[in-house]
Amino acid sequence: MFKKVVIFGVGLIGGSFALGLRGAGVAAHIVGVGRSADSLARAQALGIIDEVATDPALAVQGADLVLLAAPVAQTESILASIAPYLADDAIVTDAGSTKSDVVAAARSALGARVACFVPAHPIAGGERHGPEAALADLYRGKKVVITALPENATADIERVAAAWRHCGAVIHHLSPQEHDAVFASVSHLPHVLAFALVDDIASKPHAATLFQYAASGFRDFTRIAGSSPEMWRDITLANRDALLTEVDAYLVQLSAMRELIAVGDGAALTDIYANAQRARLQWAATIEAAERKPS
After folding, report:
1. How far, in Å, CA of 32 to CA of 273, rounded?
2. Beta-carbon neighbour count of residue 204 at 10 Å?
3. Strand residues in 149-210 grouped as ranges (E)
4. Tag placement on the chain: N or C end, fewer CB within 10 Å?
5. Residue 254 burial by CB count (10 A; 0-12/13-18/19+): exposed, middle or buried?
6. How far apart, in whole angstroms, are the C-alpha atoms of residue 67 and residue 49?
7. Per residue in 246-257, pLDDT tens?
């Protein structure tokens, strides 16, 4: 299906995409590009990529699919560096967790050629990063949101969708603005909360004692605080407006709960906990069913 795939950032996200395409037998040759020569060498040794490229311009020559799986703040510079060297039929996509800023970067860097850029976001990941974290089945049963541009050809959108389907993903479509509002709530805010909690505890004078007694609940709640600080700094600032809306709403909820705790209103607390429990169990059941469904 693809003669030459070029991936910028061969870590968990980009590496898993490569392995998914390779496992499906739809990528003849996969090239990795990144800032770390050591990381790229490990990716090649692990069989994730066929070739290491140090020059982005040379890397994309002859490519029919290019994936940007680097931090979102690098989008414009990467696109600008490759724009003059893309083949006429090349499709460029990304895996960024924010979309409005990525679209703006693409328009700035690609200009009249922006139609070749089909934005996307795979809803999968983990706190580990680097090529060793890549998994061939990471995207199986997971959603990939495509936030197509008005300029995108239908065939190009479908080609990007097909690539993700070969990795086992289920395709959804949103506008860039809808995407950023949704993920500010269900992804970006939870990461901010996890980072804030761990940082707060780590800053206390008796942090060692606190961490000594932290168990599975703390581990589960804070797992995502092990994610890349650079990547999440970029996401936080890129989706600033939508995220601030969610932070403010959460502060209202937290203040209300603080008042219930202060006055000892057990009934009201039970109502909140029970509603949250029902919603969490229903969501988990839906996710598990999707992941069990054959691709």
Report:
1. 47
2. 11
3. 170-173
4. C
5. exposed
6. 13
7. 999 999 999 999
